[in-house]
Predict the 3D structure of the following.
Amino acid sequence: MIKAQGLVRDFGRRRAVDGVSFEVDKGTVLGFLGPNGAGKTTTIRMVAGFLPPTSGIVEVKGINVASDPVRAQKNIGYMPETTPLYEDMTVSGFLRFIAEVRGFSGSERERRVDRAVERCFLQPVAGQTIDTLSKGYRQRTCLAQALLHDPDILLLDEPTEGLDPNQKQVVRDMIREMASERVIMLSTHVLEEVEAICTRAIIISAGKVVADDTPAALKTRSNQYNAVTFSAEGEGIVPALEQLPNIGKIETIDDGKIVAFPKSGESIAADILAAAQQNHWTVSDIKVDEGRLDDVFRQITTTEDAGEKEVAV
Ligand SMILES: Nc1ncnc2c1ncn2[C@@H]1O[C@H](COP(=O)(O)OP(=O)(O)OP(=O)(O)O)[C@@H](O)[C@H]1O
């Protein structure tokens, strides 16, 4: 449904997006991650048809977004980082207005507004003016305006930014609920959000895609992946473990527990248990680490120019 090919965007001498390509199909919730200034918003705006690329192509459902933005945008719901809301309108008045801008009138307009209000749980504040809304309800009003035309593609720029944990959960549940029939692409800094709702994650750094995989597969790249933490009693444990071919490093942590790291991500728990049996150690509290997305994010994006980059023009 979305196909981005070789997207580049320069702002003066600054190259914000540097050759980004990806394809996304129905049913995907794509998390778009990266450090501040990595190019997430710029990419999403190009996909949404609000910013022309310097070079490269975006197609949604086969429609070229830059050359046919009106037709492309009929398929896209876009929730920018900060949505311009008309503060003195009521929530339903605002949604009615946006529905009209989208070309709906009469009972069709009312039906669509009611549906968006219902989907985003806005009933309690539908008659309230926007300037009186809490951050969570403002965010949901922004989401509701992106849903009015029932688009197949939803582009959400930091949809849970600034929300409290309960509100975050509400928005995440809504995203999950809407995902099966659509493509949802969301940018976020919140890695737990990616684990909770995304079926795929693209990490962007200095305008380039540096990882593109499922969250579970990305976690296997973590230094912690398959590390084994355990308590053990016996003689010569650490030196013996150091001899095992798949073990790279051994650490002893504060409470006396041992952490063994695999050389290159292989499973080492069975090797440790076999060594324990052979050497008559008593091993308990054994825990195998499944890897951490924040580790991977840091490993991949911690470079001096991960966010900012200048180009010679
Ligand atoms: N309109 C603009 N004019 C000039 N530079 C811009 C403009 N928009 C973005 N940039 C620059 O492009 C780069 C990428 O910005 P972008 O907002 O896409 O990053 P981001 O990954 O969304 O960051 P954040 O996580 O902070 O929202 C940054 O260096 C930013 O300063």
About this structure: The chain has two domains: 2-219, 228-289. Residues 228-289 form a domain with the Alpha-Beta Plaits fold (CATH 3.30.70.100).
